[in-house]
Amino acid sequence: MEERNITTTTAATESQAITTNAGTQEAAISDERIPGKLIGAIVAVGSLAFIGILTETVMTVLFPQLMREFNVDTATVQWITTIYLLVVAATMPLSSYLNRRFKHRTLFLAAVALAVLGSLIMIVGHAFPVILIARVIQGMGSGVATPLMINIILEQSPKSKVGRLMGVGSLVITVAPAIGPTVGGAVSSILPWRAIFVIVIPIILLVSLPVGLKCVEQHRPTEEARLNSLQFVSIVLALCGLVMFLNQAGVAVSAAISGGSATVSAVFAVVSLIVGLGALLFFGWSSKRSFSPLIRLGWLRDPMVLLHLIAYMLLPIVGIGFGYVITNVAQLSLGTSAFLSGALVLPGALIGAFFAPVGGMLYDRFGPVRPILGAFFAAICGPILLLVFSMRLTPVTLAGFYFIFGFGYSLGFSNIMTNALRNIAPQFMPDGNAVFNTCLQFGGAAGTALFSTILSVAQAGAGEEGSTTFRHATAVGGSWTFATMIGIVAIAICCLIAAFRIGAKRNSRL
Predict the structure, then answer these.
(1) pLDDT at 213 over 80
(2) CA separation for the pair 371, 361 (Å, rounded)
(3) How far apart are CA 291 and CA 300, in angstroms?
(4) How far apart are CA 50 and CA 507, in angstroms?
(5) Least enclosed by CB within 10 Å: which of 8, 160, 249, 275?
(6) Which residues have CB under 8 Å from 85's CB, separation 6+?
(7) Mean pLDDT, range 449-472, rounded to an integer
(8) Contact 231, 111 (CB under 8 A)
(9) Is it the case that residue 22 has pLDDT exceeding 60?
């Protein structure tokens, strides 16, 4: 009896000790501090990515001014945005190789040099081809900076703080395109359009560069990675072909509806699609058989990660495309000025700036399911309300309903990538980062092309811009667009629910 009591007491003591140790470890994890240099590195690299994405969306508002200055038509001036997106999309797949081969500081300095050089050419360039060259250089800088920021966060963040820091990083992705129309409208109303690049250069050289030189560190050894040139060419062809298909398909549909010639654009769209899909299939086939692939894709065999990736590509179609839709519906249906239409996006952008890190904190505390699904169930309410009130919108309700979407979108978007990358092996994180960022860029390009086509179809044959019939047609096009947004977000939510069910089944087996 006495021996049994001793055994019981010993077991209780051991159990208490284990509980105490577990509690101590949990407290230690929760008390992990974010290094000051990591915060500085995120600010330095993130500001470069932010400026790149911001200037991309600013330029879309300035198209009428640029058309007059360079004497080009609408189809031609769109290349300022299209070529930038093409270069960014083509540079993103290189990020895995660059991250393994070069030090973070080297990549940071390259991004700084490209950003400054591109901005200088934008300031002094007075021919349209020169402006396009500047956009190519700027696209390369953004294509290096954005994945570098994510890689630094994933590699150097304390495990208990990854979610909130990824939320901070997502500010670059979500806020910059949202406030771009506002900045563009303000610049075009009071200053020459080149002023935005005059402002950008001192920020890069006086803020980003010195902070980055002091704070960007290397915590992981580099590798003797080799660049697979054939795979790089194939992925560039794939991305360029698919983006060009979206762009030219929109041009062809708009031309056909308006009674113009759509043959050239349609043929170009079909050829681009064939080239893009063929190159993408070749890239996947070649990656499986290559000893040193440009991007390792084996982790995509996990259906849970793949479903996260699909959702991450679909949601920017709505998130980034919203900026185009709101500014055009406001001007062409509600009759607002360019400045006011850009300002309508600002409340949703500001709420995104605040709640993206909050979403990361919720992820760190509660895990992925409730923070992500709750956020997007809230986000889908925005386009639902816009659809219900689409034929009697006012500037206030337009901004207010977008505010609801911006709240939910910013709260949950970055957590999708965070959760997916946490479920792949650490050595494949640079590859996952490259694929997720590439899909993000592609989704954003697809959104603008898709929604501009829908509005163009609705406006075709509706009379002159500014007339009552044209405004009504734009409102109808807006309703079609909002319905499309609801469908896209709903599909993404279904993908996430399926992914979480797979994860729950796996955990139950452990």
Answers:
(1) yes
(2) 9
(3) 17
(4) 38
(5) 8
(6) 56, 139, 243, 441, 444, 445
(7) 80
(8) no
(9) no
